[in-house]
Amino acid sequence: MAKPVAVILGVGPGNGMALARRFAASGHAVAMCSRRGPSEAMLGEIAGARGYACDVSDAESLKTAFDAIRGDLGPVSTLIYNAGSAHWGNLDALTPDDLRMDVEVNAVGLFASAQLAVPDMRAAGGGTIIVVGAGAALRGRPGTIAFAAGKAAQRSVAQSLGRQLGPENIHVGYLVLDGVVDLERSRAAMPDKDATFFLSAAGVAEAAHALASQDRQAWTFELDLRPYGENW
Question: Which residues form the signal peptide (predicted)?
Fold first, then answer.
């Protein structure tokens, strides 16, 4: 019997790799996608994983990647949207193109990816879409004006997808990440912070997997994730 296929868009050393490990561990065939494609070292960590170069802001790149995934692994049963763009700064520091790019990658890319994945899920009678979002989706601040706009638009796209696709047995879940993911570069940028400050990528992946495994009579759309000491 063929393994269910989990497509992860936006695979990097943090959440993306943690998601790939978790879904591979539960028996999924994992397609690891990033703008330039995952490194050989990343692919080598996960038995049977396949890597694809995929720019979520380019419709042709997305279609090419999804066609290749279907040919290599089979139809998509789970789509995990971890791709993102973040431009930091206020009204005086950013350009309209900065905001436009954050909306394009976070929201339009999600929409386009869903259009490519959902036909497989409909044919199978169900599926899962998990979107990795951010607390900025719920609040705009001066220095996050572009990022917050992109994430707010992304959350709205995800919610609309969930309300449309739920009756078709396609579960859409949105993770609100409220914290800084624990990465080497995060630690280097914040040397005054101890380990308890950072958000665990493995914990994010575990929460995503739990959403994907829920009983359909008790589905979650939105789930907040933050370090236990976060002042929210």
Answer: none
Architecture of domain 5-225: 3-Layer(aba) Sandwich (3.40)
- Whether the pLDDT of residue 136 is over 80: the answer is yes
Q: For 192-204, what is each residue's pLDDT tens digit? A: 988 888 999 999 9
Whole-number Å distance between alpha carbons of 50 and 102: 27
Q: Which residue bears the tokens 């789970």?
A: 78
Q: Check whether 185 has a pLDDT greater than 90.
A: no
- Look up residue 8 and give its amino acid: I
- 29 with 73: CB under 8 angstroms? yes
Residue 107 is classified by DSSP as I
Cα(217)–Cα(166) distance, integer angstroms: 11
203 vs 226: CA distance, rounded Å: 10
